[in-house]
Amino acid sequence: MLSGEQGEVIERMSRLLVRLGDIYGADRMIPVGSVQVAGVSYKSIGDPGLEFLEDYAGKGAKVRILTYLNPPGMDLENWKDLGFPEDFAEKQMRIMKAFRKMGIITTATCTPYLAGNLPRFGEHIAWSESSAVSFANSVIGARTNREGGPSALAAALCGVTPNYGLHLDEKRKPNVVVKVSADLKFNSDFGALGYHVGKQVKKGIPYFRGIEGANTDQLKALGAAMAASGAVALYHVENLTPEAHLMDPKGLETIEVGEKELKETYGKLNTGKDPDIIIFGCPHASLREIAALAGKLEGKRLKKPVWICTSRVMREAANRMGFTEVIEKAGGKVVADTCMVVSPIERMGYKTTGVNSGKAANYLPGFCKQEVVFGNIDELLKRVLT
Fold first, then answer.
1. What does the pLDDT read at residue 186?
2. Is the same domain home to 180 and 260?
3. Domain shared by 15 and 124, yes or no
4. Residue 241: pLDDT band by 50, 70, 90 thresholds?
5. Do 126 and 178 belong to one domain?
6. pLDDT (mean) for 339-345
7. pLDDT tens digits along 81-102
8. Residue 2 within a domain
C-alpha cells in the first residue's frame, strides 16, 4: 500500500495512517472490524470536502470493510417537504453519491449500533462521530479512538488503524471518580450531567458511582454530552458498563455532582425563552424514544413544529408500528438521516430551538446560531401543545 502498488489513493491514505501512528507512538497497524465516517454534511465540509470526495470516488477508491456514514445535513428523502434549501440539497446529494460510489453504506446515522453496525466487546474499530465513539467504547466495550473524517476514511480504505490510545488496555483506565447524588429521571438529566462532567474532566476518563439502572438511551445521552462539552471518548459506570469491574478507581480525584450542579447546568444551557421549533434525537433517537414521543402526543395537537431525528432504519420501524402516523397526526415530524446540529436550520427561519439533548444544547449556539431552550421532554412539550 505504501509503495503505491494499490494505487494513488491507497498510497496517500496509508501514509496518513503511518504519520498518525508515528505521532502517537503506535507500535504497529491493527485490522479493524468496522468504520464510521464523519464529515458528511455539506454544511460541515463545504465545496472543498465535496471536491475531495468526488476526486477519490472518481479514482476508484473502494472501502475494504463494513463502513457506515454519519448524518448528512438533511432528510435524504423528504427534504423538500421539510423545507430544506434546494441549493443545499443538490450539493448534499453529490456528497452522498461519492460516498456510495466508494462502497460506504449510506445508512446515515450517529447511532450505527442501532442500525446494523454493532461491534462486539473488545473489537477494534475506527469510528469518528463523538457520541458513537463514546457509546462504542463505554457501553459496548469495543475499542476506538476518536477518528477524524480523513483518518476514518483511510482506515476504511486500508482496513487498518494505528495501535495507540484507546486500543490499548493501559489507556482505558479511569483517572477521575464522579460521585453522583442527583436524581436522574429524564434523558435530559443525563445530558446535563454529561455536559457538567465533560467541562470538568476535558479529555479524561471518568468512573461514575451512584448511577443505577440507566438504560442505553440514558447512557447514550450521558456520553454524547461529555464528548461535546469536553472530549470524553470513554467512561465507566460502576455495575453498569462492561469494563467497570476491571478498573480500580482507588485513590483517584473525586468530583461530586448533586442537585445543585444539575440545576446550575440547566440554567447555563438555557439561552432562549420561547422555542420556534422543538427537536429531539441528538444522538439519533432509538425506537424506544420515538415510541415515548408518540405516546405523549397521541390524540393531541401541536401549535409549533416538533421533529424527532433518527436513522432511516428506526424510521421504517416507527412507520410499521404506527408511531410515525401518531406523531404526524399531532403535527410533528419523524425526520430521518439528519439532525439539528448538522442541518442548516438557521436558513430555514428558526432562531430558538428547544432540545432535551446536552450535546445539541452545547453545539446549537455556535453551529446554527440558535438560542436554546433546554429541558426534559415533558417540559418542552408543555410549551407547544394546544
1. 98
2. yes
3. yes
4. very high
5. no
6. 95
7. 999 999 999 999 999 999 999 9
8. no
d(CA 385, CA 354): 13
Same domain, 159 and 274: no
What proportion of the chain, given as a percentage, has pLDDT over 70? 100
Which one of 211, 233, 267 terminates a domain?
A: 267
pLDDT over threshold 90, residue 386: no
Same structural domain, 196 and 126 = no
User: Do 52 and 156 reside in the same domain of the chain?
Assistant: yes
Q: Could you give the CA distance from residue 236 to residue 223 in angstroms, rounded to a whole number?
A: 10
DSSP string, 192-236: HHHHHHHHHHTT--EEEES--S--HHHHHHHHHHHHHHS-----E
Quote the CA–CA distance of 72 and 168 in Å, as a whole number.
32
Which residues pair with residue 254 across a beta bridge? 177
Residue spans of beta strands (DSSP E) within the chain:
29-31, 34-37, 66-69, 126-127, 160-162, 176-180, 206-209, 236-237, 254-257, 277-285, 306-310, 333-336, 352-355, 371-374
Domain boundary pick from 246, 267, 288: 267
- Considering the domain boundaries, does residue 1 fall inside one? no
According to the model, what pLDDT value does residue 363 have?
97
Q: Which of 26, 22, 99, 96 is nearest to 63 (CA)?
A: 99
Could you tell me which residues come within 8 angstroms of residue 242 by beta carbon, excluding any fewer than 6 positions away?
121, 139, 140, 141
288-317 pLDDT per residue, tens: 999 999 999 999 999 999 999 999 999 999
Q: What is the CATH number of the domain that holds 108?
A: 3.30.499.10
SS3 355: strand
Number of domains in the chain: 3
CA atoms of 140 and 134, how far apart (whole Å): 9
Structural contact between residues 131 and 227, judged by C-beta atoms closer than 8 angstroms = yes
| Residue 177: domain span | 173-267
Query: What pLDDT does residue 143 have?
Result: 98
Q: How far apart are alpha carbons 243 and 236 in whole angstroms?
A: 7
pLDDT tens-digit series, residues 203-239: 999 999 999 999 999 999 999 999 999 999 999 999 9
Distance in angstroms (rounded) separating the CA atoms of residues 89 and 93: 6
